[in-house]
């Protein structure tokens, strides 16, 4: 009985550590979401495929950096990999569609670029908000 109590105590301690250490992920997602407010308009309003490629590469590097950092965490909460995959996949899909529409259909429209920036930031901001709630 004493061994079971100790095992439960260790499990609770690990869960507490995972929650406490997951704050880094919420902060990163907020910064990444804010970055979309600058990077997406540049990608949509930029002239030529080089501007789009540069902005896309910067975003991919940010996501890759986050993925590598996340994989190196000693303790992550249960379900982190799935949440991270869904967030990155959602962002990538929205980003690709918004840049494609902004450079082809909407002719580099400033109002569209503003809306596209918000649309690209939304999945990341929602992820940060839910992560903050979980860490609390």
Description:
By secondary structure, the chain is mainly alpha-helical. 87% of the residues lie in helices and 0% in strands. It is built from five helices and no strands. The protein has helices at residues 2-21, 23-45, 48-71, 80-104, 110-135. Helix 2 (23-45) runs antiparallel to helix 5 (110-135) and helix 4 (80-104) runs antiparallel to helix 5 (110-135). The longest helix is centred in the last third of the chain and has 26 residues, at 110-135. The protein is elongated and about 70 Å long. The mean pLDDT is 84.
SSE pattern, N- to C-terminal: HHHHH
Q: What Rg do the Cα atoms give?
A: 19 Å
Q: How many DSSP helices?
A: 5
Q: What class, by secondary structure content?
A: mainly alpha
Tell me the total number of β-strands.
0
Mean pLDDT: 84
Q: Which residue ranges are poorly predicted, with pLDDT under 50 across at least 5 consecutive positions?
A: none
Quick gist of this model?
The chain has 5 helices and no strands.
């Amino acid at each position: 009985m004493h061994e079971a109590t100790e095992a439960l105590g260790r499990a609770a301690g690990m869960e507490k550590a995972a929650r406490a250490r997951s704050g880094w992920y919420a902060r990163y997602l907020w910064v990444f979401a804010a970055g979309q407010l600058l990077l997406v308009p540049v990608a949509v309003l930029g002239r030529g495929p080089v501007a789009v490629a540069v902005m896309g590469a910067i975003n991919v590097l940010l996501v890759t950096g986050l993925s590598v950092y996340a994989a190196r965490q000693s303790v992550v909460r249960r379900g982190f990999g799935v949440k991270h995959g869904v967030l990155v996949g959602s962002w990538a899909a929205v980003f690709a569609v918004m840049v494609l529409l902004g450079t082809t259909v909407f002719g580099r429209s400033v109002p569209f670029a503003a809306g596209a920036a918000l649309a690209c930031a939304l999945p990341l901001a929602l992820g940060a908000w839910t992560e903050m709630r979980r860490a609390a």
